[in-house]
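User: Predict structure, ligand zinc ion.
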Amino acid sequence: MPRIAEESIQRVADASDIVEIIGSYFPLKRAGTNFRALCPFHKEKSPSFHVNPSRQSFHCFGCGAGGGVFRFVMDYEHVDFVSAIRRLAQRAGIALTEENDPHEESRRGQRSRLLELHKETAAWFHLNLLRNQEAEHSRVYLRKRGLTKEIAIAWQLGYAPAGWEVFRDWALGKGFLHEELLQSGLLSAREGDTQGGYDRFRDRLMFPIRNDYGEVVGFSGRILNDSQKEAKYVNSPETPIFSKGRVLFGLDKSKRPLIDAGEAIVMEGQIDLISAFEHGVTHVVAPQGTAFTTEQARLLRRFVERVILCFDADTAGQNAVEKSLPALFTAGIEVRVAHLPQGEDPDSLIRGKGVKAFQERLAQAKDFFEHTIQRGIEESGGNFSHREKASVARRLGGYLALLPEAALRETTTSYVASRLGLSVAALQEAGRNHPIARPDDAALPPQQPSSSHLKKISASTKMICRLAILSPEVRAWLETQTSPPLTELDPELSLLEEIIPPLRNIEEPSPSTLISLLPPNLQLLASGWELERISSEPLTSVQSAIRGLRLNILKKQRDSLSIELRNPGLTSQKIMALQKEILDLQPLINELSTPVT
Ligand SMILES: [Zn+2]
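Assistant: Predicted complex:
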């Protein structure tokens, strides 16, 4: 990971007022000296998300999210620490000093070159669509599908010219290297020809694929002449900046609407998504390809608790529904399925019958299990036989087993059992006999940064950590306390190892710098603390807390010696040794018990 110089971090933190930054994402309401809003990290009806300007921290009393301004940007934008700093630095107009190792530097250099190439290529494709004579058929196609020029501009749709080397020559002329074009996948290599290569996208309507913060990382190209014997859609291959299974098309535009709605409408195609979005149904995403991956499901889970799968009514669409379920269920997402009329997709429905008709379908979307039962009944033509019930039970049993939460699994299982007129045991057996594979990497990650272990910290250790954050004097003294190591007094004091080093070279940090320099778990902890209030004698308080911890240890030692002494089988020699040990401890205990004056 690249290191950003600490003074840079400090400057960025000082220039990034947390109220202003969070307020730029969504409105904050003043409440006394604090600010309040509906929490963006969990769904709620009354605001428990607080922003404290003097502490420069945020804290949600509902879900426990919290930290400083960097933490907020990391969680809200789903980026790492360094990217969060870069973003805030850019916003504040601060040039960062970065200390990089050469390997990292070249990797990042490669990444930024590829991003630059994609950005310029998207603009070039777009210009081709708007201006190029050759692109007339793609403009006609867009008009036919109700996608206006304004929409094409908003989504930066483009046109990749026909011909095998048009893109290549343009990009080389722009100063990109042949090697970079191959890395980007925009140029395909001919076997045995390392200097040549041909354009991957030829005579196609181009959709830039953006990551969740809006950078173009790949393309999807749609064929314009369906009679051609080529794939309808061609996507960018996996590259250092693009992994199909990790990107959700549309997410860069729909983040906020997703949080507001608490649910995501999942569509198959880019055109369906754009059409819905432009008709005001904005809480939409599309997995690239047909089924959800674990990574996509986890990404989505940070914004919503429920999805409505809105796939085509054809068999391929229904297969995509079922293939998406393992990833969605294991991520803890509730799945509903919208039933579209046969032969319709979201786009055709919206354009044919209006967005209202589409929204009605969404409102009628049923929980996946109920949806499957109803389809079973419909397909049986009103005669839902035992055989058909058993077949539905076999299909659903495996999915029930994937529900991660026991309570939900049980209630859903008994619901499905009663709908099918089966016993719970029979349904569970059907599930065991027809297991659905969990996604490979579905070892479930914690959904929220876990603060549970931090809650167990004793009050005095908490106080020591808090004052260590606030006072350089306290930090300096604590660093001298090496024998016995402080962790012998309380293992949780190992937190100090995470607190002291990052703060070592910072003089007079602001509260926001302090909190943002800490590791995430501590940020969470510290966001609940009164960081602005510091006792007048922080060092004295810490010293007496440490004395208290020492005293506890000594008393425990003495008590266990006394217990041992009561053992009837001891030799007189052993008794004397134990008594001596107790006597030796006593003056230490006495000394620590006397308050310092
Ligand atoms: Zn919350």
